[in-house]
Amino acid sequence: MQAVTRPRDYQTIILFSIVTLGAMIGVPLYAYHYDFTTLDWTMFAVLYIVTGLGITVGYHRMISHRAFDCPGWVKVCFLLAGGWALQNSALKWCGDHIRHHAVCDENDDPYNALRGFWYSHCGWLFEKGDPGANAKYDGKLRKDPLIMWQHRYYVPVVLSGLALPFVVGAISGGWMGGLSCFLLAGVCRTFLVLNSTFCINSVCHIWGDQPYGTKDSSRDSWWVSLITFGEGYHNYHHMYLRDYRNGPQWYNFDPSKWLVFSLSRVGLAYNLQRRSS
Ligand SMILES: [Zn+2]
Ligand SMILES: [Zn+2]
Prior knowledge:
The chain has eleven helices and no strands. The chain has 277 residues and is mostly helical. Residues 60, 64-65, 97, 101, 237 line the site of one zinc ion.
C-alpha cells in the first residue's frame, strides 16, 4: 500500500529549524567571540545525562514498555526530565512508540524506516499526524493521572527546562552568563539529545546486526548505545520489549539498565522485567 503524505506541520518545522540553526550557527559563533565557561560545560553534561535518561529510562522503558514500576515521585522526576528533552509529552511520545512496535515497518508505523533514513530520523515529525492514530495504543497511558498531568502542563515543563540553564548561568555571570549557558546547555544540548534519540529510529533500523531475530528491520548498533545510554541494542529490544535491559550482556554499554538496577537496589524501582528464558 502506498504511504500517505500528510500536510506539513509548520509549527514543528519552525521550532526544529530554530534549535538546529541555534546549535549549528549560534553556538560556534558565540564560542568564537566569547568562549564558554566551565559552568556552561558542566550544565551541558548534566542536562544531556538527565534529559537523555528521562527519555530512555522514563519515557521508553518505564512508561512505553512497563519494564519496571517506581514510586509516584520518581515517576514525576522522569516525566520532568523527559519533558525537558523537547520530544513531546509522554502521552504522545509513548503512544507513537507503542504503535511503532505494534506495526513496525508498516504504513501505520509513525517512523517507518522503510520510507528512508531522513523520514525515520526526523522527517516524520514534519508532517501532521492523524490525531486518532494512537487511540488503539494509548488507552492505558490516558488512565495514568501523572502522565495526563505532564501532558496538560507540557509547555510549562519545557519552558522550565530551558529556563534552568539560563538562570544558573545568570546567577554566576549576569545576562551574558545566562545567554552563554542557555546556548550550550539549552539549545545545543537539546539539538544533540534530539538527534541521538532520532538515531534509534533511523540508524538502528537500517545499519547493524540482527542477532536476535529478523521479524522486523530493527538492528543492534553498539555505537548508538554510546550516545543514547544503551538504546542502540535495538534488535534485542524489539524481540524482548518489556525487558528493562536493552543490552542484556554484562559487557553491553547500557547505562539506562544500570540506573534501573541501581534504583531497584535502594527500593526506588521494582517489578523489573527480564526476558524469560
Ligand atoms: Zn521500545
Ligand atoms: Zn524500533
